[in-house]
Design goal:
- It is a single chain.
- The protein is of the alpha+beta class and about 575 residues long.
- The chain is about 30% helix and about 30% strand.
- The protein has five domains: about 30-150, no CATH class; about 155-285, no CATH class; about 290-415, no CATH class; about 420-445, no CATH class; about 455-535 and about 540-560, no CATH class.
- It has helices at about 1-15, 60-65, 195-210, 240-250, 255-260, 320-330, 455-500, 515-520, 520-545, 545-570, and strands at about 35-40, 45, 50-55, 70-75, 80-85, 110-115, 120, 125-130, 130-140, 145-150, 155-165, 180, 190-195, 215-220, 225-230, 265-275, 280-285, 290-295, 305-315, 340-345, 350-355, 355-365, 380, 390-400, 405, 410-415, 420, 425-430, 435, 440-445.
- Strands 11, 12, 13, 14, 15, 16 and 17 form a seven-stranded mixed β-sheet that branches. Strands 18, 19, 20, 21, 22, 23 and 24 form a seven-stranded mixed β-sheet that branches. Strands 1-2-3-10-6-7 form a six-stranded mixed β-sheet, with no helix packed on it.
- The structure holds 2-acetamido-2-deoxy-beta-D-glucopyranose (8 copies).
- One 2-acetamido-2-deoxy-beta-D-glucopyranose (NAG) binds near residues 344, 347, 349 and 351.
Amino acid sequence: MFKNILKFVALLSLSSVCFVNADSPLINEKAAENVSLEYTKDGVLRKEDQCFINFVNFGIKNDIVNISVKKENNKDGSFNLRIGELKNGNEGLNNYKTGYRFTDDEIKDYVKIKQNNVEIKDFSVASVVDGKFSLLIKNLKTCDGLSVKQAYKTEALMATYLYYSNVSPLDINHAFDIAEFGPSSNNVPYDIIHWDMNTGLDRVREQCRIYIDYNRREQTGGNHWVWYLSTDNINGEKCNNTAFYKAAKSSYIDYEQMDELFGDYYEGYVIKREGSENGHMDGILVNQKYLIEIYQDGCSEQNKDQVICTISSNKKLSYEEFQKEFVDNCLDVIVDQKEKAEWSVNASNITAKFSQYSINIENYNRGSLPKCETESVSYKEFKAAESSGIARFTINMSCGEGTFIGDKCRCSACPVNCASCLDGNTCSKCNKGFITNEEGTCEPITTIKPITTNTTTTIEETIEPTVIIEEAVTDIKDKETTEEESSLNSDEEEEKEEAEEVTPVEEVEEIDSADENIDENVNEDIIEDEKSTELDENKETKEEINSTTIRHITKTVTVPVTKKPKKTIRKCRVKLHY
Ligand SMILES: *[C@@H]1O[C@H](CO)[C@@H](O)[C@H](O)[C@H]1NC(C)=O
Ligand SMILES: *[C@@H]1O[C@H](CO)[C@@H](O)[C@H](O)[C@H]1NC(C)=O
Ligand SMILES: *[C@@H]1O[C@H](CO)[C@@H](O)[C@H](O)[C@H]1NC(C)=O
Ligand SMILES: *[C@@H]1O[C@H](CO)[C@@H](O)[C@H](O)[C@H]1NC(C)=O
Ligand SMILES: *[C@@H]1O[C@H](CO)[C@@H](O)[C@H](O)[C@H]1NC(C)=O
Ligand SMILES: *[C@@H]1O[C@H](CO)[C@@H](O)[C@H](O)[C@H]1NC(C)=O
Ligand SMILES: *[C@@H]1O[C@H](CO)[C@@H](O)[C@H](O)[C@H]1NC(C)=O
Ligand SMILES: *[C@@H]1O[C@H](CO)[C@@H](O)[C@H](O)[C@H]1NC(C)=O
């Protein structure tokens, strides 16, 4: 269907906008003859006897050699230039399903033609075939100083991974097996971040003479070009990976989570667009030998395969060092880093009790926690020379009185004078001497007493709206309860199964594909879990709460049920890694 629309658009632009006849040759078979390339900080200079043209962001090697350039002389001594076989890097730059669309009639907006730094606007996009397009530039007097640059409509989305063996491979630009990558080798990336293609490609070109390399065109899950960017792409300045990544990294516009996870220790060695999902970046851990990944279980926003913090080091951590590093690094869950926790360790888990909440830390599926105070963390080590050891633990939070599991699955304080709450705005039970008001906050009970005197009129007024609202509440409940009950059962079963499979962990030498099967169900489970806990809370509160507060409960029921799962889906989308 979409394909047809594209064709239609292409036809439209051919007939109305352009002056080109349909048989305009896209491919000049002799184009490659007598062509040489020069890789400069300005782009790839394609030299042939007719014309020298600087191409920017159209690839390297054959991408550029295969471009066809054809001069057509006009009567007045000027000439028209037809340039064909240009790869449209905007086509399917991101996942087809996530809403990004690039139509052929937009191409012209993202091609910048300059002659000796003066922009030429009088050109047309002549034809679009198989993700490639042609240009027609009219009435040129000379080819001198001609430059054709491709710009990108949007940032490229990059899922981030870590290559556990910690040496960037010798031959980078191809697909690798996900089993060698983290986090957790199950295709849930550390994060998905936005890379500004326009500044990013400029920077690596200007600083390293590294250029985007278009490989092949993929047609599964929407058409797009497969491309790579790494030190393997010409690299005229012989940049090492550190220099390459320094140039590339500055174009990520939302790198915060990666910074929080790795500080300066992460170094991407390739940025690429391969399969039908978004692009991704693989990197290594620099100057660090050991890595602990912390996951979080039993929390609404968090997929259990999402890393919430990492602890890297050059030595294996003792129990005491682990405690310190955990508090220093896991800012997602530690509310006040200065608060001293009461730590305890035994063969099965480590707990940290804070005054308002406690954290239970357990083995996940690589390495293991110290089993007593004198033991160290044990890491699964990799065989490669620079390889680091890796351990994975999972935590479970218990939030105390007056707190709730809020942002980033951290215990957060309820509103003032509130004993228990559903979220940061809505109190379900106030402290002694306080009562909830219409805003869901708590106010002293004394202000309410005078109102409970005998005035029949006010009582009637408050009752009427209540009836309607209660109906709304039951309505929502009815829809959800059946789902909820069945999902609770299956969740329990799954938890047991997973626990059994996870225990014999340390023996696993290769990271296996069995992981993947389990994890595919994760998203749905989380969402259902979330619904059920929220509904439970609502039931409780509804029983003990009077008419005035019910209005508020309805608000909080609808908000989380519709909004939160969306968030989970975005964060927890499983990325295929080729
Ligand atoms: C390439 O150059 C050679 C020698 O200069 C010439 O004989 C040949 O015709 C050229 N080929 C084309 C396609 O221009
Ligand atoms: C370049 O053109 C040649 C000959 O037409 C073809 O074999 C080759 O696959 C092309 N390369 C690219 C990268 O398109
Ligand atoms: C990488 O290159 C930078 C200079 O650009 C240099 O300071 C650094 O030591 C190099 N790193 C390695 C690992 O060679
Ligand atoms: C291990 O420690 C936890 C938390 O302190 C405790 O609940 C549990 O009973 C202990 N288990 C054993 C086997 O000692
Ligand atoms: C710690 O492990 C023990 C088993 O030894 C388990 O019974 C207990 O529930 C765990 N503690 C927590 C807080 O989960
Ligand atoms: C996490 O904690 C909650 C409540 O504290 C508990 O119900 C749940 O079983 C725990 N999950 C795991 C995996 O220990
Ligand atoms: C409320 O009404 C009751 C009987 O209907 C009466 O005994 C009582 O005095 C009234 N209270 C006030 C504060 O008017
Ligand atoms: C509070 O709710 C209870 C139970 O629904 C009800 O019996 C009682 O009359 C209510 N009190 C007021 C003041 O509305």
